[in-house]
Fold:
Amino acid sequence: MANEDELRIALSPVQLAAVLSDESVTEGETLSNRLLGGLGLAGGVVELMGAGVLCYAPDPTFITKVGCVVVGTHSLDSIKAASNQMITGHPTTTDTYQSAVLLAQTLGADRETAYNVGLTVDTAVPFVFAGAVGAARVASVRMGRVKLVEHESPTGMKPGGHTIKRHVGVTKEQLLERLKNPRVNKASSFKSLGAAEVAVSSALKANKEWIKLWATNPAGRPNLELTHIMSSDIGYGLSKNSTQLVRTSRLKVVLHYQQFQGKPYFILTAFPDF
Structure:
C-alpha cells in the first residue's frame, strides 16, 4: 500500500537506460528510435519472406539452400533487434553486427574500423546471397528434364518460345502444308513431347559450358544456337519437293537471352535437324 510520505518515480525502459548511462533522452529521440525500429521490423519481415522463397525454390541449388538458412537466420536476428528497439526506444544492433565488430577487434582493427566492418557485414548478408542466387540462376543449366511448357509463349509471340506449337507431334500432312511456304525448305517434328524434352535436356547438358559463357556475357549475341546428336531417333522431317519422311537423331536448340517466366533466357525453339 502506498505511503503518502513516499516518493515514487516511474521510468520507462529507455529512460532507465539513459539514467544508467548518465545520459538524457528526449521524447523526440525515443519516438524516432521506435519509428526506426518499426521500419527495421518491416525490413526483417520482407527479408524473411525472401528466405522463404529461397527455401521453396522449384529448382533448389546449393546456393539457394545455404541462402535459405543464412538469410532466414539474419532476418530473425533483424526482427529481434527491431522489436527490442520498438519496445525500449533505444537503438539496438543485431547479433550479426556485434559478432562482426568483435571479430574485427580480435583481429586487431581499431574501434571505428571494427564498427564499419560490422555495419558492412550486417547490411551485405541478404544482398550477397541475392546476387549469388541471381548469378547461379543465369549460369545454371538444369540437369533434369527440361519442361518445354515453361518456355512456351502463351500468345505465340515473344517473349517465349514455340517448340511445342510448331515442332511436337506434327503430322506429315501438316509438314507438307508448311513446306508450301516458299521460304521453308525443310520442316520437322519431334515424335512426342517426352522425346522433345529428353533430347533438349541432353543438348543443354552437353553444352552447359557454352551456355554459361554466353549467359554471362551475351552482348551482341541474343541467340545461342546449339546442335546435338542423340543415340536414337527423336523425330522426323520432310524436304521440299519430297513426300518421304526422314528419321533423324539430330536436333537444334536456339536459346534467346531475355527475361521470361523468372528465367534470364528461354528456349526460343528446338527441332529435329537432318
Q: What stands out?
A: Residues 89 and 220 are 54 Å apart (CA to CA). Strands lie at 186-190, 223-229, 235-239, 246-248, 250-260, 263-273.
